[in-house]
Amino acid sequence: MAVNSTSGRRSCLVVLPSCKEGVSAQSFIQCFTLTHSAFTVQLATPGGKTPEFINQDDQSRRWLNDFRTKPFAVPLSLEIIDPNRYTSLVIPHAPGAAVDLANNKDLGHIILQFIRDKKLICAIGLGVAGLLSAQVEENSSWGLKTYSLTGKLLRLQFSRKKSIRSIGKRHTQLQSVVHVMSWKENRTAFGTGQLD
């Protein structure tokens, strides 16, 4: 069990893109606030770069400015993340996930380890594009292909986003993910339950 030795709390890894397309400020604030209340939260981005928060209003701008002064606001690089240290993984709604998370091998290795260990993986909105990185090297298959994924509005969100098309051949996989999510939304409450 991945428990922080100083606080006795479980650890949650929050993965964010580091590209200019960024992460939704509102989604990040909600994710961080909820996870931080129960977990020791660690942020991670490709290269450990500072994430770009988009769609900020006055309130979220003030919250983020205060957040940036905290030591836990500095992300680690995905390259150095040990998946065994975390009990859960969260990828908030982030248009940038299609740009620098969907093909990120380090994130892919982390997600595959989470799958093997049967740990909680939560991707929200366009953050789901980050799940495409979970490619099994031996047979080039997608690590989540036998899992059910849920989401009510994802098909509409993905069909409207031009940035999703930038991930090339994985766009077809992403359409399949959205289709499975749409098909399964009334059969599965949440998450990564195995398909029959």
Descriptive labels:
Rossmann fold, 196 residues, five-stranded parallel sheet
What does this structure look like?
It is globular and about 45 Å long. By secondary structure, it is of the alpha/beta class. The strands form 3 sheets. The protein has a 5-stranded parallel sheet. The chain has a domain at 11-135: Class I glutamine amidotransferase (GATase) domain (Rossmann fold, 3-Layer(aba) Sandwich). It has helices spanning 25-38, 58-67, 97-100, 105-116, 154-160, 170-184, and strands at 11-15, 23-24, 40-45, 53-54, 76-77, 88-91, 120-123, 135-136, 141-142. The chain contains 6 helices and 9 strands, in the order ββαββαββααβββαα.
Mean pLDDT over the full residue set: 79
CATH class of the domain at 11-135: Alpha Beta
| Secondary-structure element series | EEHEEHEEHHEEEHH
* Fraction of residues in helix: 25-40%
- State the low-pLDDT regions, or none: 152-161, 163-196
Radius of gyration: 16 Å
What does the overall shape look like? globular
- What about the largest sheet? 5 strands, parallel
Give the name of the CATH architecture of the domain at 11-135.
3-Layer(aba) Sandwich
The H-level CATH homologous superfamily of the domain at 11-135, spelled out, is Class I glutamine amidotransferase (GATase) domain
